[in-house]
Amino acid sequence: MPDKHLSTQFDSELNGVSSRVMELGGLVEAQIHQAIYALSQFSMEVANQVSENEARVNSMEVEIDRELSSIIARRQPTARDLRLLIAISKTTANLERVGDEAEKIARMVKSIIRSGSARSLPTSDLRVAADLASGLLRKALDAFARLDTTAAVSILKEDDLIDKEFDGFVRKLITYMMEDPRTISASLDLLFLAKAIERIGDHSKNIAEFIIYIVKGADVRHTSMEHIESAVQ
């Protein structure tokens, strides 16, 4: 009976910290949506809101890590439970970095607005990539909540689309800069912005890899898609 009681408490703690991760994910998602809106509307006010939310994201990361450290010290989990706690910690770190990228997007938007060159550059193409990255993060969080390895594999494949959008956008920016050197400064801002969007996709991919690690105990980082698909079967 005491063992069952302890197990129930442990499950409750795991569920609690997992819920906190999802809460953090929701906050970071909101940051991304604000950043994309700031880009689409060239809104200085909304860009400032993204930056203001960054402190809350950082605080939540610290709080979750503190909870994880406490659980590990008190419960001394083994096997899958330990993998889950490790993956939660790494997922939290990746979500905080997504928040950093959203703040970076907001910062670049403000710089572009100040430059006065915003509407002469291909920002609509960038918004397509931003929507893809935001959607990928949402899928990663959903898959994490369900520990769905099939969805995780799908996310890993979909990240390639964001990489292709980034490569195409870079080529377009180079053309703009060659045709009109006056756009170089604003184009470089957009280039950094595009890289931030690509990094959001990379962090979503990392979360998908952690899901596979939790469920299958396989570290699939830096491996081929064939190896990943074999690991989840």
Quick structural gist:
The chain has 233 residues and is mainly alpha-helical. Helices cover 88% and strands 0% of the residues.
Question: At CATH's second level, what is the architecture?
Answer: Up-down Bundle
How far apart are the first and last residues' alpha carbons, in Å? 36 Å
Uncertain spans: 1-5
Strand fraction: under 5%
* Secondary-structure element series: HHHHHHH
Shape: globular
CATH topology: Methane Monooxygenase Hydroxylase, Chain G, domain 1
| Overall average residue pLDDT | 87
Instruction: Please tally the β strands and state the result.
Output: 0
Count of individual domains: 1
Which terms summarize this structure?
233 residues, 7 helices, disordered N terminus
Question: What features would you describe in this structure?
Answer:
This protein is mostly helical and 233 residues long. The chain has one domain: Methane Monooxygenase Hydroxylase, Chain G, domain 1, CATH 1.20.58. The relative contact order is 0.13. The N terminus is likely disordered.
Show the helix and strand layout.
Layout: H1 2-41, H2 44-75, H3 79-115, H4 123-146, H5 149-179, H6 184-216, H7 225-232
Helix pairs in contact: 1-2, 1-3, 1-4, 2-3, 3-6, 4-5, 4-6, 5-6, 5-7
